[in-house]
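User: Can you model how fe (iii) ion sits in this protein?
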Amino acid sequence: MNGLLQFAREDRGFPPSLFPDYRATVARSPREALVHMPQTLTEVTGPGPVWDKLMGPAIHDLTTQHKGAPLGQRIIVFGRVLDENARPVPNTIVEVWQANAAGRYIHRKDDWDAPIDPNFTGAGHVISDAEGNYRFISIRPGAYPWGNHKNAWRPAHIHFSLLGPAFATRLVTQMYFPDDPLIDIDPIANAVPLPYRDRMVSQLDMATTTPNWALAYRFDIVLRGKNQTPFEE
Amino acid sequence: MTLDLEHREALPRHDNQNPDLFGQTPSQTVGPYFHYGLPWKGGADLLGQSEIGPRLDLVPPEHFVLNNAHGSGMPQGEAIEIKGVVLDADGAPVPDAMIEIWQANAAGRYNGDADMREDVPLDPHFIGFGRAAASAEGIYHFRTVRPGRVPGPGNTLQAPHVAVSVFGRGLLKRLATRLYFADGEGLDMDPILSLVPETRRHTLLAQKRDDGAWWFPIHLSGAHETVFFDL
Ligand SMILES: [Fe+3]
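Assistant: Here's the modeled complex, given as structure tokens:
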């Protein structure tokens, strides 16, 4: 026992690295077993409250980054960053990026024939508050086709990136929408088995929806928590 | 109109707040289009001296909204460069990869709340977290300082190392590895390296090249597969 409280390991809801239905995983996933290791000071630490020194001031409104308003349906995306013991994770950075309302990314390699919206970039980041709350204003992204297989379409999603308190808690995920039938046939979402897949699906929240302005979707993000059982050496 | 109508809630079809479902949010890939969302200018220069990190060729300039990192001054210690290539099972470069690093300062102290050792100094000019997008050739590049040694389990001391996360299209979850320096002190006594089968330890050793940079290739799979950790 090294005296450090360890973070829990990834839970059963995590996808495998190799999931052949998502073809790109085949040449890009390790075949050797991962080497099990105790978390040391390296893994239980992470950058302190210095996000603005790294990534600059928050960008919470993705609809006011350019001259005009972006096309599409305005949405509020909000929720809490928690650990798996349901404790808030304050002061951590939540980064998002997404396609526009037509399902097109503002990226030179995205050559899908859907319109670019000059008024929409689709990138932002905020810091969770003392209770773990975060909130963005955006527009609802569209579904888009991809080359994984014939007639493959990604469900509408927002990419999320979180660091949490430590190297061990780093998480990149995607938020899906509750009324989207493409989730059930998407190889990337399906790499996560049910019922855990549903943890990535946001919920329409009428209490936060603003009349005559925007629908609101709640997406709580749960990071690894501190484990009470020390690592056995 | 009844009050009731105004307060109706939609029935959740899915619910990530359901107590029976509550638990870690699963990982998903960053996909191929993260370049305007994650790697910021200067993100790969932990010395705060340049703007390396993003792929500005992949984002129209008016849509690169990520902020510049502002260096506050030169950190203490030996300035070094870390470079490497990310390769797939067939040895092909992975151009849509992203690498992150986390490390101690030159004195061996982490700039994070959980490192509470007051006898080892913080460096006001060094955070120790960096992010780099791979180039079209799959190459990543960081500028940083050589980290000092930090304690390991029990009374052990770890050899100087950098914690590395690998992300990319086709990576459903982050792959975690460690970079050690081939000439580092205490490699043969390192508590984590000693958990790695001897025949594979070389995949964690960065080698100094003629140009002075530490070269650390990352093989996601294949005959020279890098050691990745379950932590
Ligand atoms: Fe996407």
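A couple of observations from the model: Chain A has a mean pLDDT of 94. The first strand of chain A starts at residue 35 and ends at 36.
User: Helpful, thanks.
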